[in-house]
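Second attempt. The first submission of ATP synthase subunit c had a stray character pasted in from the spreadsheet, which I only caught after the job came back as garbage. Lesson logged: always re-copy from the clean sequence file. Corrected sequence (69 aa) follows.
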Amino acid sequence: MGGTLNMIGLGLAAIGPAIGVGLIFAAYVTGVARQPEAQGRLQSIAIFGFVLAEQFFIISLALAFVLKP
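This time the job returned cleanly.
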């Protein structure tokens, strides 16, 4: 039963980073559409934001398996 609740929590924890990544790349595409010459700078910022958003999911994934009773 405890393992099942951990997996449900993991699924819920994946929602936040998924929304964050979607918003990051939506802003990136909008920024490049408005200023194509700023693509290089915006791309590095978007990749950095992607890494920060995904680290929370990776930490929650690790915790879901570590805290499994």
